[in-house]
Amino acid sequence: MLFLATMKRRNFIQHLCPALTITQIALLSSSCQTEEEPMLPATTEEEKEFKRISALFNADGFLIEGKTVFVNLAHKNFVKLGDISGFSNVIEAGILLLKTDANTIKAFDNCCPHQGARGSWVLANGRFKCENHGNSYNTTEVNLVGCDSNSITGGLVRYPVTLYKTYLKVVKS
After folding, report:
1. Shared-domain flag, residues 80 and 164
2. Which residues form the Rieske domain (predicted)?
3. Same domain, 66 and 18
4. β-strand partners of 170
5. Given this model, what pLDDT does residue 9 score?
6. Structural domain range at position 22
7. Percent of the chain with pLDDT over 90
8. What is the model's pTM?
């Protein structure tokens, strides 16, 4: 205690503050990191549901029932989802599918928050970019912005995903 009491303010700031600042930055960055949320495994009821719909897919490899979209990942239209960072825009279903790691496919609203376009997406540096006006949106669920809200930045709305064998279930909220 005597050391701190006799230390001059300038010495204190020069010696102690950088260490405190580094500690605060480390704490903030570690609290902002999120683990990938794996796809949920199908429950017994969902397995029955997947078996029921397996014969109902359209020629494009998906089925829409209300706010639920079923996707047959084995269909040729979804082959890009076999690669990490591969994505597929299912325009008719209103979803973007993105493979983020070996075990995770995420689903997002494919409606551009800026002006509502749905069909002009590219993926660059982990962000979806709408080719209509060049705005890009994150996939990290930070600062979510809704469809046609005139927002030029933010995050796309994400939907929950369940996987059963080669079938994916997306529930749009």
Report:
1. yes
2. 76-170
3. no
4. 69, 161
5. 55
6. 2-30
7. 62
8. 0.74
